[in-house]
Amino acid sequence: MIEYKELVPDHFDQYKRLILRGFTQDEESFRIAPEDVIETDLPTRYTTDSFTIGAFSNDNLVGVASFKRDGENRLKLQHKGLLFRILVAKEHRKKGVASKLIEEVINRGKKVEGIEQINLTVVPANEHAKKLYEKFGFETYASEPKAIKWKGKYFSEDQMKLML
């Protein structure tokens, strides 16, 4: 059974291990290289408009999805939220974990005062992820060719939005 809950600082070590493993195993699906992960804390602030939801199997972190208000300190951007770092350990994929994480983030995002839309980015070659986002109503509104360069290869990146 999978339990979903907000991550707190005590979860950081598990979070970092999961993220590093994911960024290494699926390096062409993320804009962040494993070498870039030098964080000393979770990427969110444990507030109503900045949080990370974790999926736990027997107290082991097996998936994450993060949300933060876009333009945290920019008044003209505060109507947007950003869904980012959606990752599920390979052995737990195709079991609905990513869907539940996204659903949890969207439901919480809808309750954040002033949030009108949620944005995300995805490498279009990651067709499974893109189709999953579309299932929730996300629509592509822009695509940047050669957005990412990794090991001599270029990858496009699609920007998607969900109007709440």
Describe the SSE topology:
Elements: E1 2-6, H1 12-25, E2 50-57, E3 60-69, E4 80-88, H2 97-110, E5 117-122, H3 127-135, E6 139-150, E7 153-163
Description:
The protein is of the alpha+beta class and 164 residues long. The chain has one domain: Gcn5-related N-acetyltransferase (GNAT) (Aminopeptidase). Helices cover 23% and strands 37% of the residues. The protein contains three helices and seven strands; from the N terminus they run E-H-E-E-E-H-E-H-E-E. A seven-stranded mixed sheet has the order 1-2-3-4-5-7-6. The longest helix is centred in the first third of the chain and has 14 residues, at 12-25. The two termini are 30 Å apart.
Gross morphology is: globular
| β-sheet strand percentage | 35-45%
Classification by helices and strands: alpha+beta
From the alpha carbons, calculate the radius of gyration and give it in angstroms.
15 Å
CATH architecture label? 3-Layer(aba) Sandwich
CATH topology: Aminopeptidase
Number of helices: 3
The CATH homologous superfamily is named Gcn5-related N-acetyltransferase (GNAT)
Could you give a short account of the major beta sheet? 7 strands, mixed
**Mean pLDDT over the residues:** 95
The end-to-end span amounts to: 30 Å
Order of helices and strands: EHEEEHEHEE
Number of separate domains: 1
Uncertain residue ranges: none
Strand tally = 7
